[in-house]
Amino acid sequence: MAAVMKALAFASPISARAQPRRCSAGSGAPSQQSLHSSFSGVSLQCRLASRPRPCCPRSSSVQVVMMAKPSIQFIQGTDEQTIPDVRLTKSRDGTNGVAIFTFDQPSVFDSSAELGDITGFYMIDEEGVLQSVDVSAKFVNGKPARVEAKYVMRTPREWDRFMRFMERYSQANGLQFVKN
């Protein structure tokens, strides 16, 4: 089955819409903003500096963007702790490519009994989620030994998006690119 780019609500980048600031000139009480996060649907109250402001335009807004650590998941909401070996191939004309992730002794099998079955392959960062259902496991003597996930990129745009994820993931996990 083809890889699908999908933004999931549970792992979307956190961006918040601020309500217009409520200011009262001369009062020493701190202003408050109500922020709504699409990440968890929870309203947050943020206190601003307590210094009084003479006036705040009603149409002003503040955008808050929180950076999430790039992660890979097989079960939604549970990060895979094992760092994969990643092999990339790209067509000669650069229009498509394939990334194959190999996880030796992945931690997903440690938690799958409590959390459920592997539902797919999810690469999550502040831009959203890259998803594939092309996941296979190798068993040795009846015990899980390896998981292999394949992510197919069919357009240059998907390739660029994948490379941005890999740049973030590699920086967060100390990976480096080795050309063969």
Protein described:
It is a single chain. This protein is mainly beta and 180 residues long. The chain is built from 2 helices and 13 strands, in the order βββββββββαββββα. The chain has a 5-stranded antiparallel sheet with strand order 1-11-10-6-7. It has a 4-stranded antiparallel sheet with strand order 4-3-2-5, with no helix packed on it. Strands 8-9-13-12 form a 4-stranded antiparallel sheet. The chain is globular, with a radius of gyration of 21 Å.
Could you write a compact summary of the structure shown?
Helix content is 14%, strand content 39%.
- Number of helices, counting only DSSP H or I runs of 4 residues or more: 2
Helix content: 10-25%
Report how far apart the termini are: 28 Å
pLDDT < 50 runs, ≥5 residues: 1-51
Oligomer: single chain
Strand % is 35-45%
Biggest β-sheet strands, sense, barrel: 5 strands, antiparallel
- Categorize the overall geometry: globular
Class per helix and strand makeup: mainly beta
Strand order of the largest sheet: 1-11-10-6-7
Lay out the secondary structure:
Layout: E1 4-5, E2 14-18, E3 32-37, E4 43-47, E5 63-66, E6 71-75, E7 78-79, E8 85-90, E9 97-104, H1 108-115, E10 121-125, E11 128-132, E12 134-140, E13 143-153, H2 156-173
Antiparallel strand pairs: 1-11, 2-3, 2-5, 3-4, 6-7, 6-10, 8-9, 9-13, 10-11, 12-13
